[in-house]
Structure prediction request, 625 residues.
Amino acid sequence: MICSTQAVNEGMSTEQLQRFIAQGYLHVPPDESLPAEFHEAVCASAGAMGSKGCGALGNNILPQLPGLQQVFETPSVRGALRRLLGDGYMMHPHRFCHATEPGHTAQTWHRDSYWGNWHCRHHTPHWMMALYFPQDTTIEMGPTGILPFTQYCNKDGGGRGAFGVSRFSEKDIDGGAAAVWGTDPMACTCKAGSVFLIHYDLWHRGSANVSEGGIRLMFKFQFSRMAPLPRPMTVAQPVQWRRYLGEYQEKGGAESRHPAHVLAPVWQHVWSLLCEQGCDEGEKTEQAQEGEHVRTVEYHRDMLIKHAKAGSGSPQGEPGRIAAAYYHVAAVPEEEHAVIATGMIALLRQEKHLLAQQGRVAMYALQAMGSTALEPLLYEPRLLMSSPYATGALKGVLEACPDGMYNAQEVLAVLQAAFMPQVNTGVRQVAAEALGCIRDLGSVQCAMGVLRNDGDGDVRATAGHSLLRLITCGVLDERTSGEVASLLADLESTDCDRYVTAYAAEGLHRLDLIASGGVEQGHFAPLVRWCSKGNGWNSGGDHQSAAARVPGKAQQCAEEMQCGPKGERKNHSQMGDMEGRKNGPNTQVLPQPQAHKKERKKGSGSRVQSGAFASISPKEFRMGK
Prediction:
């Protein structure tokens, strides 16, 4: 295996990791390996483009300023990312430069979509945002605001499907939502060069810039897990989570009942999947001990269903609902999990009357059971084809199951049925994500089939991400590697979805590094690539269209990329990716050893450079010399 499945025990202290699990963020101070002149050069380069220029670049802010990747290759940031996401993690192709000028108003509080799509949310660290501030950032400049402890809670609404998210206004927060969720807004004020690593689902916003002059810059990058969860072989040591309430503790003192502490069962579960040390099998968590001796499995099942239905969609009860999914499962011996699994599946069968909160609680409860929920779910093939929550539960269970604990072919047979055209997009997307958890050649073939044939861009892209996980974990043999490389080369050149093509380029990059022995201690050098499909929000063609891999559509999409929908030939400035030029217009490139440079001969994106960049002067950064 190319990447280790063991817990990475360096890069963050145990206390830092536990604090991150509870609060949802880590402030990484400026790394000494980057001098102040580096951050000044970043500010000068981005400032010269202005807020509109930076925003228009979207994903292409990295190939425009490729030196930015040095920030995420510093020992402190790279070590923390490795601890949270495991070996082989990927710098995601979606990124953005948030440049706000004085007078910019505050955003509403929100959770990010997945670049315009609404996916199942992971409580364990699978996706991470890294917010880099290249300048001293004061409260007046409008730093990013975050709501600690909120990464596990959702606010339903917005008409965005099973996993959609609504927003909170300032009035909502002031009106008590923050108090009920046990959080106080926190501004990410910091020194130049600081990076905030935040759980992808943490609630946040851009604050108002009320300063008298100057642009506030923040570069948002995203990273995703490629390796499986560590799955320690011992039970996690119980943690006294109250100590991490810290500055958010109520005035009554350390023993006060803080609202966020209700989430302690969630924190303990996440810790159990990431920790490096365990305790005796018989030792229980502090949450599961309370009154356990007098309560039957039926009691816990019924209370879990009651919590799932409580509140009728109100966000105020969300922490208690989510905590219940983990508390009641942890309180029941594994041999009795089937009783709770049956109750959760019965709840999910009520699809026509199911609230999102109920489906979410059932999904997380089934995930928390791990392998004991696998058989009950596989006995429900029809439910898995109709309910994204059931498919999401199966995905989470597969993520938590060690290799060899289940029959991969049996699971794949169930998942393949979920990719039939009549199955709704939400189910197909979650099923595509589940493929990345099954480290088997059959899963590789299934992901390739989805990439060739599914009509939805996001489903295809998700299958591409799963294929990347399988490549990174060393699942491919020599023959399959050739097949995958051929498919990825074709997708990179012809698919209409920007993230299908980006994942295809990343896959080829990783296959090259594996073949050449370029993977150093489980770390893959980032790929820097110019995307010709615009700013990162709208795909070439149509992000949700029945596009490239549907027979007859690939050629049409390829032609529209070159000619536009009316057949008019696009000029180079429209395409943003010029034949014979490695980079986009006015790209500022840093010196790079020739051996690491890659060029595209055709297709939707140019691979600019990969690997670490040499040290540079501010002038070289600005001028691209």
